[in-house]
TrEMBL record:
SUPFAM superfamilies in the cross-refs: CheY-like (SSF52172), HD-domain/PDEase-like (SSF109604)
PANTHER family: CYCLIC DI-GMP PHOSPHODIESTERASE TM_0186, CYCLIC DI-GMP PHOSPHODIESTERASE TM_0186-RELATED
Species of origin: Agrobacterium albertimagni AOL15
InterPro entries according to UniProt: CheY-like_superfamily, Cyclic_di-GMP/3'3'-cGAMP_PDE, HD/PDEase_dom, HD_domain, HD_GYP_dom, Sig_transdc_resp-reg_receiver
Cross-referenced CDD domains: HDc (cd00077)
Protein name as it appears in the record: Response regulator protein
Length: 361
């Protein structure tokens, strides 16, 4: 237990130092002036402060006021030493945060009793702080493990969707990365941006319930098939929404709302404007960008420039204007994500060809 001693009188300072040495497991940190103390902050570490009230330049209260400007000292108990018995002085010390007083000349027996009580209090407080820190770390560890399991569930569900349509897996990962980029430009908190990236791959999980004749159909869908395909939003939301996991609930929210339109003409619930969750509005932009820039059974891929122009032109009708503006700011990052994905696909294709050639050889 380290005890800060501040007294401009060298005799008193030596006496206080000797008295501290007699306390169990206590170490004195003597200072002969307030200036010397202030020069040592904030690197100085102590658990209790014993400060003389009457000193030049700074009195004890003024010194302590300067000390507690540093957050690390805010909870340190302070004892003032004073020969002044005036109530005004003592009230000023109490208002500053004093926990006790010692009257000059200091009585060694009284010092031992009063300071030992404060030492016991400081030790108990430290133990509570240590326990609180241990509990915080345990909670943080448990939450981290839970989040890892949630991410594993999402990853496994994404793999399941890939069995229905191999392109779905790459599409969901691109949409997730684009969505995070838009969320960042919207100024959302970093943990929210990260959660959106983790949850977004599940936006089309409801398509596992679609028959292959509809999901993998070459060419345009009939009106009946299109209505059937639209049901994937509600199915996906229902699959994910029954979980108590906050991450899967976010994924459910995205699944249900990423086909809603700002003007209320979307599906499944025809929500309008800000009634659409922000996560759904973000993924709506990202999903449309990816759908347009990639080849589909019913259309060729659009160019990057044409797709950007299309999305910017639909701000306020199909898309949230703020999300479109954030999309515009995120375009350098979005283009880098798209190009990286294309490089990876080419590398995978090259590996597949090489592997096939080896088998033939």
């Amino acid at each position: 237990m380290r005890i800060l001693l501040v007294d401009d009188n060298s005799t008193n300072l030596k006496l206080l130092t000797k008295l501290v040495a007699k306390l169990d497991h206590c170490e004195a940190l003597p200072f002969a002036s307030p200036d010397a103390v202030l020069s040592a902050l904030p690197e100085l570490d102590f658990d209790i402060a014993i400060i003389d009230y009457q000193m030049p330049v700074y009195n004890g209260v003024e010194l302590y006021t300067e000390i507690v400007r540093f957050e690390k000292y805010a909870e340190v108990p302070v004892i003032f030493v004073t020969a002044d018995k005036d109530m005004t002085t003592r009230m000023a010390a109490l208002n500053a945060g004093a926990i006790d007083f010692l009257t000059k000349p200091v009585n060694p027996v009284e010092f031992q009793a009063r300071v030992q009580n404060i030492v016991s209090l400081a030790r108990a407080r430290r133990q509570l702080a240590d326990q609180a820190e241990w509990l915080r770390r345990e909670v943080e560890r448990a939450v981290g493990e839970l989040r890892e399991r949630e991410q594993e569930i999402i990853h496994r569900l994404t793999l399941a969707a890939e069995y229905k349509d191999p392109e779905t897996a790459r599409h969901t990962l691109r949409v997730a990365a684009y969505s995070e980029a838009i969320a960042i430009e919207l100024g959302l908190p970093s943990h929210v941006c990260h959660d959106i990236r983790l949850a977004a791959p599940m936006h089309d999980i409801g398509k596992v319930a679609m028959p292959d004749t509809v999901l993998l159909k070459q060419g345009r869908l009939t009106e009946a098939e299109y209505r059937q395909m639209q049901s994937h939003a509600e199915i996906g939301s229902d699959i994910l929404g029954r979980s108590r996991s906050s991450l899967l609930q976010l994924a459910s929210e995205i699944a249900a709302s990423h086909h809603e339109r700002w003007d209320g003409q979307g599906y499944p619930n025809r929500l309008v404007g800000t009634a659409i969750p922000i996560s759904g509005r973000i993924v709506c932009v990202a999903d449309n960008f990816d759908a347009l820039t990639t080849e589909r059974p019913y259309k060729p891929a659009w160019s990057f420039e044409r797709t950007v122009e299309h999305i910017l032109g639909r701000a306020g009708t199909q898309f949230d204007p703020d999300c479109v503006a954030a999309f515009g700011r995120a375009l350098p990052r979005i283009q880098a994500i798209m190009e990286q994905d294309r490089r990876e696909q080419m590398e995978e294709a090259d590996k597949a060809v090489a592997s096939a050639n080896e088998r033939v050889a």
